[in-house]
Amino acid sequence: MKKNVIITVLLTCCISVAFGQKYLTRTGQITFFSSTPLENIEARNNEVAAIVSQQGDIVFQAPIKSFKFQKELMQEHFNEEYMESDKYPKADFKGKIDNLSSVNFSKDGNYNVKVTGKLTIHGVTKDVSEPGTIIIKGNDITVNSKFSVATVDYNIKIPALMAGKIAKSIEVTVNCILSAVK
Amino acid sequence: MTLMLSAGSQQVFAQSDTSDNDLERMLDADKSATKKSQFVSATFKSTHIVNGQSIENVGKGVLDFRILHRFGTLNTGSENFFGLDNAITKLALDYGITNWLMVGVGRSTFDKEFDFFTKIKLARQKEHKAMSFSVSYVGGLYIQSLPASTFHLDTGQTYYFSNRVCYMNQLLIAHKFSNAFSMQIMPTHIHYNLVDSSKNPNDLFALGVGGRLKLSNRIALTGEYYYTLNPFSEANDLPVHNALSFGVDIETGGHVFQLIFTNSTAITERAVIGQTNGDWGSGDIHFGFNISRVFTIVQPKEFKNSRNKIW
Description:
heterodimer, A: alpha+beta, Lipocalin, B: mainly beta, Porin, twelve-stranded antiparallel beta barrel, 12% helix, elongated
């Protein structure tokens, strides 16, 4: 009886190690780029927290105040006027890898994935589905994705005066290297 | 064996449940341990509240070009276009050497004065802390360049260059109470190398208080008052009053417009704090404005490889 329990426990344990491995980072990078004929704006955030499990669950969290701009005043306006970061301190994404079966976490390589889930920015949650790649190399995985976010979808108000300088659709680039959690 | 079992079962519990919520909890839990508390930002819109300095600095590598205007008093009547017929102007350039050190130079019409200042951040308020304050030091140097003949000097008295010079030491202590409301107190010491009457002190001490109330994300009301502890008995041959100013900050992109009402004719601290002649009660109120335009001169080094080439 006791033996059986141990075997079952060890077995579950092995299975959970094989399928339950998680990858985590707190220094992932998300950048965004707004391009208009009048002005280009770029911002970078190197403090993105992300976690990916081998079951295909994905969570990303980007603190809004950690976005750095080329012009300091832009950063202040971004926080104070557009993203209202005191009220909505972070943007996050919770979702799943749709084509999990095509990713082999135990084999190094590049895998194209499609991720579906809920993206929350400025307190507004939207269902999104975006393509990306997962690069597996030993115990690290790199998640890359490039997609567009329309400011109007997330209730980010742009005054008429600035409309020519801020793109309606902002290009977001995700580049996060996650390490296996021991 | 029991040990193995408990170790094994722990691992099972730790790893078996991987819904999004648990992943999220894992991110949060870990973060609370290493979370560094953030500094508050944007206590004031601009580096100046109205006439005096605010706790804000311009960032590293940022140049702020300021155009400041004070018209005559409203009570001079319609024949003087309610003061708009004459104006005091100051042009100033402020620059951020680092994120905690800024310097500035200005020239104003009043007494043909050059002024220089340095503002150093000593402490920064942390978020979600009731007893946390931002503290800065401001050092000012003021040099009047009026011709010596315009001063009332005793016969035979030489007018030295040092007679033209004044200094200021000021502490700024600010607290951002909420997104909309900030306050600041400013203990100030001004040294006048030469005063025009023995009844006037060479060392003036004052306590200033200033505040900001945001009406919207881009518009704010500001106010500023300097109480002098040992006031001048007279300045410019006129009685002296404490300086009281109100303003409206309007922000549009890279500009901040400050529309102001004040009883001070001059714009530099040594004259505003110590030598304000206007009296609000009798309508000696000046309309004026400050325009601030910032230029980013030095690109932050994180953006060296940026595809956005703006330099």
